[in-house]
Recover the amino acids of this structure.
């Protein structure tokens, strides 16, 4: 009977210690993820993905079509010198408006790299002047 009040307190103290112990490594992991945020810088040609995937269209001779396609909201890509192609998007929104003028031109883009099922994505992109 004497201990009946002590036991719940002791248990809650244990729970608090356990919570602290668990919380610390999680916080550290979050910190590490923020540091290595997959930020990359890629230089390449701005692609109109619809025409590029459909018939390989790119380059100067396709620039005006690419500009039209990108302005109309079709997906935008960046083809780096090593041939890798990345989809380009803003921060939870399209980046088409700012990329249209660079259709078929070579630019450098900074963003967060994500890859899944063989498709590469650069998100939250910024054009590096
Ligand atoms: Cu096009």
């Amino acid at each position: 009977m004497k201990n009946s009040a002590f036991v719940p307190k002791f248990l809650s103290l244990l729970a608090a210690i356990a919570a602290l112990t668990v919380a610390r490594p999680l916080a550290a992991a979050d910190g590490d993820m923020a540091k290595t945020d997959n930020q990359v810088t890629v230089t390449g040609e701005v692609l109109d993905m619809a025409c590029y995937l459909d018939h390989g269209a790119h380059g100067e001779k396709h620039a005006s079509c690419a500009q039209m396609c990108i302005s109309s909201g079709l997906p935008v890509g960046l083809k780096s010198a090593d041939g890798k192609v990345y989809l380009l998007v803003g921060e939870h929104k399209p980046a088409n408006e700012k990329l249209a003028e660079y259709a078929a031109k070579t630019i450098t883009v900074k963003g967060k790299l994500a890859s899944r099922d063989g498709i590469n994505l650069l998100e939250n992109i910024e054009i590096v002047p």
In short: Residues 48, 51, 65-66, 69 surround copper (II) ion (CB under 6 Å). The chain has a mean pLDDT of 84. The longest strand covers residues 106-116. The two ends are 75 Å apart (CA to CA).
